[in-house]
Each structure stands twice: as structure tokens, then as C-alpha cells.
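quick one, 212 residues, struct below
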Amino acid sequence: MCTVKRPIGVFVAIAALCLSALPVQAATPALNPNGRLLGVVPVREFAKAGHHGGGGSSNLSYHGGPTMHTNTTFAIFWGASGWDSGYQTLIERYFGDVQAAGATSSNVYYSDTQYSDTVNGNITQSSTFAGYLNDTSAYPPNGCNDRATSICLSDAQLQAEIQADMAATGWSGANPTGGESQLIFIFTPKGVGSCAGSSCAYTNYCAYHSWI
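---
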């Protein structure tokens, strides 16, 4: 999955059912109302074609702001049908395993601990999986056209659903003074597409992340 360090607000990762194990790459500029498309997991064909560059080999660049040192993660599964067997269980297990691994070197995010900021020091690699929501509400009318699916949700529509679910569950958002933010992942089932700016699922990405 995708992760990013943000000082304020709710991190949002949108994931289509075509998730792969490819590395997260820098995305082409595609603006949304509250920020920008920060990165994608490209579909295999798109990655092979040379889009979004190759795999990164250098350290991340620090731009002077606070980073997210710890996080609380939530998952939203939006859709009443269309899910592959075991899909949700596997994702919940992944988040739980990340929490259980803690600050050990076997944690998939252990490399994060090499980074720090000038506000809170080193990243501590502490992640808590705090829950999930099965959102069975109906999809709104199409907000985009990905040319691959009959249902296409725009970035704005996905953000709106996340905010509605936050209000319903009490998920509150960030605590910037403590260096913590909430990571909220929203997943859609097979046959449901999405677009963020000019980039769309099944063509440009399997998942993308941004913030609101």
C-alpha cells in the first residue's frame, strides 16, 4: 500500500481491486480540490511502458516541515457486492501485522526510521490499526469516465464519502502537535473505477494517495 508523511489533516489512499506489489512511483501532476495526487501504484502495463519513472534508489528529500511520526489506520470497504473472497480479511491482516511488528527490523516500514524532521525528531515507526467500516451505501451518479467500468467515482466523490464515514464513526483526523495523523484507506470492489484528475484506475493506477 501507499504511505506518505503529512503534518496536518487526514491522509487518504484510494485503492482499486487491482492492487499490485509494484513500488509507489511519483505521479504526474493532477490537482484535486484539497491538494494534489501525491503518488500512485501503477498498473503493470503502465509501469512497463516507462510511465512514472523507474524504481527509486535514493533517499527521500526533506523539505523542512513536520512529518507524521506515528499513525492510526482505518479501512473503508465501499460497496455492497463484487468483492473477491478473502480480500477484506487479507487487508485487515496486513494492517494488523504492521501493528504487531512494531519497531522491529522485520516491519515493512522499518526503513522509515532513518528519517526525521526538525520538529519531532526521528520517525518512530508506530502504526495502530484501529478499525474498519463496511460502507454499503449506494454509489452516486458517475463523476468520471475511466473507459473501463460502468461505475466511475471521482476523487471529489471519494473524498466526500470518506468525510461522511468519518462523521458517522467519529474518526477525527490529525493531531499535528504529537506528530500523528490518521491514515484512511478506502477500497472499492472489482468493476468500480475511479479517476483523479486525468489519471484513472485500470489504466494509470491500481491505487493512489493524497490528503484532505
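The helical segments are 44-48, 87-101, 155-169.
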